[in-house]
Write a structure and sequence with these properties.
This protein is of the alpha+beta class. 36% of the residues lie in helices and 12% in strands. It is built from 20 helices and 16 strands. Helix 7 packs across helix 9 and helix 9 crosses helix 10. The C terminus is likely disordered. One of its GO terms (biological process) is mRNA processing. It is an enzyme of class 2 (transferase). It holds the Pfam family PAP_central.
C-alpha cells in the first residue's frame, strides 16, 4: 500500500504531500545563522521547559500508566473475571496534542488518552472507579470530571502537572502493550466518543509521519504558536487557529519546502497563506474513504461542508475539517495577519526589521472604537466553570448572527480570551471589536440595530440544559474610552496614544487613506482625514461616532424562574449603534510589493533529525524556483488545484446544519423559544437605515462602576410600538 501521504512523480521519485514540493532549495549560511537567532529568541521568551520539568512530566505519565493498569485489573476482578483474565487485563496511556508534537512550553497541560478494554465502561468505570481512585490520592488535586462534554474528559493536576485525560473503550477484551492506534481497524465497533477521543492521537501521530524533517517542523510550529498568541489569533473556539490547526498549516509548508530551515519556513508560511485562495482546503495527504463507513470531509457530497470558509483537513481517517469555527470576520482578521507577517519577513530579509516587530502584541483595545462586552456570572466556581464552557461554545454564533443580519456590513473581532473583575464573585467577561465593513460607501444616518440579534443569541445561550439559578449573561455596547479598567494589567488604563507603535501608526494611516479613497470612488460621503483635519477627526469621534439606543429588556431562560433584575449583570442588551464615516477601527497593514526571493543553493538540510519513514536522504529533482517570485507564485496557485478546488463556501450557514462541537450533546430542541434565523421578517431587523428608535425614547440613564459602562433604559411599550411600525415599513 505504501506510505500514507507519499506521492509519486513520473520518474518514480517520491515526495510527501498531495503535490510535489515548490522548492528543494536547502539553507544558505545566512539561513543557518538566522535560524540560530530564531531559536535563541524563542528560548529567551521562555518557550522551552527546563530539564527538571521535562523529567517531572515523564514521571507523571509513568505513574498514570501504572494507575490505569491497576484500575482495569480492579474492575475486571469486581466484574467476576477469573484470575487469568484479571492478569491479562490491561489499559494503556497515550499522549497527543502539543506534548506529543514536542512543542509544549513550561506549565502546559498534557493531553492524554486512556485506552481500555470493552468491559471497562466510560460511565461506571472511568468516571466511577478511576475517578474515585484519583480523588483518594494525595498527588492528585483540582480533579474536575466533565462526563457530559462532547468529548468526555477528566481534568486534574498530578504532582502539580495539569493533565487532561480522555477515555477510549475499544472492542477488545485485552489491550496489547504494543497497540498501534493509527490502524483503521481500531475504530471498529466503538462509540462516537471513542472515535473522537482516539482522533487526537491518530491525527498527531499522522502529522509527525507526514513532515520531512521533524526538528524543523517543531521549531517552526513553536514559532507560529507564539506568533498567533501574540497577535490574538490563537483560539479555535473563538474562530481562530488552535494548536492542531497551526500544526497542519506548518506541516504543509514543510512538505512544500522539505529542505528549508525554520527561518525560511516561517517566511514561506506567511507568503503561501497570504496568497492562498480560501476555501481551497489545506491537506497533508489525500482524503481516504476508509472501510468503516464513517463520514469524511467532502463538500461535493456533504452540504454542511460547503459552508466551511477555511478548511484545514486532518490527515487521519475519518478526515475532518479542524477549523469549523472560522467565520467571515475571523478569516478576514487572520488573512490580514498573514499579510502583515509576510511584509515583515520581507523587510527582515532586507535587514529593515526584526523579530520583535513580528511578535508585537495586537493592540485589541486600541484598534476599535466600539465593542460588545459579554458578562457572565454564576453562584459558585463549579457552576461558573460549566457556564463558561457553554457560553464560549456559543460565542461563535453571536458573530455569525451579526454578520448575517447586517449582511456583512458590521464586522466582528472576538477577543480570544476572557477577563475577570476581581471585585465581583464568579465573573468572566468577553469582548468583541466592532467596525463597519471597509471600502463601502457610508449612507447618511445609517445605523446598525442588533438588539434582536443579541436577544436571540441570549435566548439560545439560556437554553442550556444544565442551567442553574445564578447563571446569568449580560451583553452591552461599550465605547473604547469606557473599557473597564480591570482588563488592563494592574487595573491601570494605559495611554493609548503612546502605546501605538510606529508600525501601527503607519498601518492605521494607510487604512484610513485606503478606506477614504474607496468611499470617494463609490460616491460615498466619507471625510478625508489628514494631519490638518485632526481637530475635526477628534470632534467626530467624540460627538458623532456612535449613537446608542439601548434596550433594557430582560431575557431569562425558557421555562425557568424569572428573577428580578437588580444588578448590571442581567440578560440585557444595549446594541443599537451608529457608526459615522470617519470611523477607523483596524490596525491591519496595507499591501506592499514583495521583493524577489534570494537565490539559494540546493544542499541537504542541516538538521540532524528527519523522518526516516518519509524521504530520508532521497532527493526529489523538482525545479528550484525559490529565486523567481513569479514562478513561485504560480507554483502556489498550482498546489491549490485538485478535486476540491470547485468548492465555493456559501455565504451563510443555515441553522439546520449548525453544530457546537464542544457541547453538541447538551443542546436541547428549543422549539419556538428561539427565533428562526431564516425568517425573512426577523432578518430585516439587521440593518436599520431609515427607521431608528430615537434617542427620545430613553427615559433614564444608569451608570455603574465597571469602567463607565452605560445602560440606557428604553420604554418597553414604546419600543414594541416601533417594532410594529417597522414591520409595516418593511412589508410595504
Amino acid at each position: 500500500m505504501g506510505i500514507p501521504g507519499m506521492s509519486n512523480q513520473n520518474n518514480g521519485q517520491q515526495w510527501l504531500g498531495i503535490t510535489e514540493p515548490i522548492s528543494l532549495a536547502g539553507p544558505t549560511e545566512e539561513d543557518v545563522n538566522k535560524t540560530h537567532e530564531l531559536e535563541k529568541y524563542l528560548q529567551g521568551v521562555g518557550l522551552y521547559e527546563s530539564q527538571q520539568e521535562a523529567v517531572g512530566r515523564e514521571e507523571v505519565l509513568g505513574r498514570l500508566d501504572q494507575i490505569v493498569k491497576i484500575w482495569v485489573k480492579t474492575i475486571s476482578r469486581a466484574k467476576g473475571f477469573n484470575e487469568q483474565l484479571v492478569h491479562e487485563a490491561n489499559a494503556k496511556i497515550f499522549t497527543f496534542g502539543s506534548y506529543r508534537l514536542g512543542v509544549h512550553g513550561p506549565g502546559a497541560d498534557i493531553d492524554t488518552l486512556c485506552v481500555g478494554p470493552r468491559h471497562a465502561t466510560r460511565e461506571e468505570d472511568f468516571f466511577g472507579e478511576l475517578q474515585k481512585m484519583l480523588s483518594e490520592m494525595d498527588e492528585v488535586t483540582e480533579l474536575h470530571p466533565v462526563p457530559d462534554a462532547h468529548v468526555p474528559v477528566m481534568k486534574f493536576k498530578f504532582n502539580g502537572v495539569s493533565v487532561d485525560l480522555l477515555y477510549a473503550r475499544l472492542a477488545l477484551w485485552v489491550i496489547p502493550e504494543d497497540l498501534d492506534v493509527s490502524q483503521e481497524s481500531i475504530l471498529q465497533n466503538v462509540d462516537e466518543q471513542t472515535v473522537l477521543s482516539l482522533n487526537g492521537c491518530r491525527v498527531t501521530d499522522q502529522v509527525l509521519r507526514l513532515v520531512p524533517n521533524i526538528q524543523s517542523f517543531r521549531t517552526t510550529l513553536r514559532f507560529m504558536r507564539f506568533w498567533a498568541k501574540r497577535r490574538g489569533v490563537y483560539s479555535n473556539v473563538a474562530g481562530f487557529l488552535g494548536g492542531i490547526n497551526l500544526a497542519l498549516l506548518v506541516g504543509r509548508i514543510c512538505q512544500l519546502y522539505p529542505n528549508a530551515l525554520p527561518n525560511m519556513l516561517v517566511s514561506r508560511f506567511f507568503r503561501v497563506y497570504t496568497q492562498w485562495r480560501w476555501p481551497n482546503p489545506v491537506m497533508l495527504c489525500a482524503i481516504e474513504e476508509g472501510s468503516l463507513g464513517l463520514s469524511v470531509w467532502d463538500p461535493r457530497r456533504n452540504p454542511k461542508d460547503r459552508y466551511h470558509l477555511m478548511p484545514i483537513i486532518t490527515p487521519a481517517y475519518p478526515c475532518m475539517n479542524s477549523t469549523y469555527n472560522v467565520t467571515t470576520s475571523t478569516l478576514r482578521i487572520m488573512s490580514e495577519e498573514f499579510k502583515r507577517g509576510s511584509e515583515i519577513c520581507e523587510a527582515m530579509e532586507a535587514s529593515k526589521d526584526d523579530w520583535d516587530t513580528l511578535f508585537e502584541p495586537y493592540p485589541f483595545f486600541e484598534a476599535y472604537k466600539n465593542y460588545l462586552q459579554i458578562d457572565i456570572t454564576a453562584q459558585n466556581p463549579d457552576d461558573l466553570r460549566q457556564w463558561k464552557g457553554w457560553v464560549e461554545s456559543r460565542l461563535r454564533q453571536l458573530t455569525l448572527k451579526i454578520e448575517r443580519y447586517t449582511y456583512g456590513m458590521l464586522q466582528c473581532h472576538p477577543y480570544p480570551g476572557e477577563f475577570s473583575d476581581k471585585s465581583r464573585s464568579f465573573h468572566h467577561c468577553y469582548f468583541m471589536g466592532l467596525q463597519r465593513k471597509q471600502g463601502v460607501p457610508v449612507n447618511e444616518g445609517e445605523q446598525f440595530d442588533i438588539r434582536l440579534t443579541v436577544d436571540e443569541f441570549k435566548h439560545s445561550v439560556n437554553a442550556y440544559t444544565l442551567w442553574k439559578p445564578g447563571m446569568d449573561i449580560h451583553v452591552s455596547h461599550v465605547k473604547r474610552r469606557n473599557i473597564p479598567n480591570f482588563i488592563f494589567p494592574g487595573g491601570v488604563r494605559p495611554s493609548f496614544s503612546s502605546k501605538v507603535t510606529g508600525e501601527n501608526k503607519k498601518s492605521l494611516k494607510s487604512r484610513v487613506s485606503g478606506q477614504s479613497q474607496a468611499e470617494k470612488s463609490q460616491g460615498g460621503k466619507a471625510a478625508v482625514l489628514g494631519a490638518d483635519d485632526e481637530r475635526k477627526r477628534k470632534r467626530l469621534e467624540n460627538n458623532n461616532n456612535l449613537r446608542v439606543s439601548k434596550s433594557f429588556v430582560s431575557s431569562s431562560p425558557p421555562n425557568k424562574e424569572v428573577h428580578e433584575d437588580v444588578t448590571p449583570i442581567s440578560a440585557t442588551s444595549s446594541c443599537s449603534m451608529k457608526l459615522d464615516d470617519s470611523e477607523v477601527n483596524s490596525m491591519g497593514a496595507q499591501k506592499s510589493e514583495t521583493p524577489c526571493l534570494k537565490s539559494v543553493d540546493k544542499v541537504p538540510s542541516g538538521d540532524s533529525e528527519t523522518n526516516g519513514s518519509a524521504m530520508g536522504n532521497q532527493q526529489v529533482t523538482a525545479p528550484d524556483i525559490s529565486n523567481n517570485k513569479e514562478e513561485e507564485r504560480l507554483a502556489i496557485e498550482q498546489i491549490m488545484s485538485g478535486p476540491y478546488d470547485a468548492h465555493q463556501a456559501l455565504a451563510e450557514e443555515p441553522d439546520e446544519v449548525e453544530e457546537d462541537l464542544g457541547y453538541k450533546n447538551q443542546v436541547e430542541d428549543n422549539g419556538g423559544s428561539v427565533k428562526n434565523n431564516s425568517d425573512s421578517s426577523n432578518s430585516k431587523f439587521a440593518v436599520v437605515e431609515e427607521l431608528v428608535i430615537p434617542k427620545e425614547t430613553v427615559c433614564s440613564t444608569h451608570s455603574f462602576s465597571n469602567g463607565g459602562l452605560e445602560e440606557l433604559e428604553v420604554n418597553l411599550l414604546f419600543w414594541l410600538k416601533n417594532l410594529d411600525d417597522f414591520h409595516r415599513h418593511i412589508l410595504q
